[in-house]
Specification:
Elements (H helix, E strand, L loop, with lengths): L8 E8 L3 H17 L7 H19 L8 E8 L4 E8 L20 H8 L2 E6 L4 E8 L16
Antiparallel strand pairs: 1-2, 2-3, 3-5, 4-5
């Protein structure tokens, strides 16, 4: 008997060292997890999720690092809600998130703007120790109305 069991929730939780290597690994784990859940590594969802994880992990390593403490990556695939939830938690709660923290020619300070543009929803939640930045992505493309152009006369 071959019975297909649908799981409404699939999850990956991984603690990683608060180093650039840990941030790179978080991005790779995201692509691998999504591929194993049926979302191709080179697909739009995987690419967007990897970009968001790369930014949040880099922030956790750069701004949320506490010596001797790791950061945590959590991916939750909520099939019932048609949503991928990404959470990156770090041990530092005394830092606030800043947008456009720099001048126009600076190479840093725009990552959260990218996250805001790509995410369906996102936010920050305090933890007992530190904070969690979470992002939700729609699993399917949300169709936007296509503007109609009038047919040429003639």
């Amino acid at each position: 008997m071959n019975v297909e069991i649908s799981t409404p929730r699939t999850e990956l939780v991984q603690r990683l060292s608060a180093t650039p290597r840990g941030a790179r690994l978080a991005r790779r784990l995201t692509g691998t997890a999504l591929a194993s859940w049926g979302y191709p590594h080179d697909g739009d969802l995987s690419g967007t999720a990897q970009l968001i994880v790369a930014e949040l992990a880099a922030n956790a390593v750069t701004h949320g690092r506490v010596p001797g403490r790791d950061f945590e990556l959590r991916l939750i695939l909520l099939r019932d809600d048609d949503t991928l939830r990404i959470e990156v938690s770090d041990a530092r709660s005394d830092r606030t998130l800043r947008f456009l923290d720099g001048g126009l020619l600076d190479e840093h300070g725009r990552g959260l703007v990218v996250v805001q543009v790509l995410a369906t929803l996102w936010g920050v939640a305090p933890r007992e120790v530190g904070k969690t930045v979470w992002v939700e992505l729609a699993l399917t493309a949300r169709r936007r109305p296509c503007p109609r152009t009038p047919a040429p006369e003639g």
